[in-house]
């Protein structure tokens, strides 16, 4: 199944957005988010991205994809609809 990558600024399902990402990799001008990068959740406060795809990495860190989860349990919502990975 194909999923778009998560980037800095992309939303969380309960509100909030991804606040940090790769220092090197971007898609369409925004930094790619990875497992361990930070986000703010309107329901749960500060959190980190808990999941990433093991086959798609940046500097060995798994890249987060659409519907992957943060540590608070919220799902990530990708803003790129026309780019898919895995």
From TrEMBL:
Annotated region (Disordered), positions in chain: 1-27
Recorded superkingdom: Bacteria
InterPro entries associated with the record: PAAR_motif
Protein name: PAAR repeat-containing protein
Source organism of this protein record: Pandoraea terrae
């Amino acid at each position: 199944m194909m999923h778009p990558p998560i980037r800095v600024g992309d939303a969380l399902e309960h509100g909030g957005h991804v606040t940090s990402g790769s220092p090197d990799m971007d898609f369409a001008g925004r930094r790619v988010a990875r497992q361990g990068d930070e986000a703010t959740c309107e329901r749960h406060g500060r959190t980190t991205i808990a999941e990433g795809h093991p086959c798609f990495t940046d500097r060995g860190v798994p890249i987060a994809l659409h519907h992957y989860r943060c540590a608070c349990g919220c799902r990530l919502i990708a803003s790129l609809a026309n780019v898919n990975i895995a």
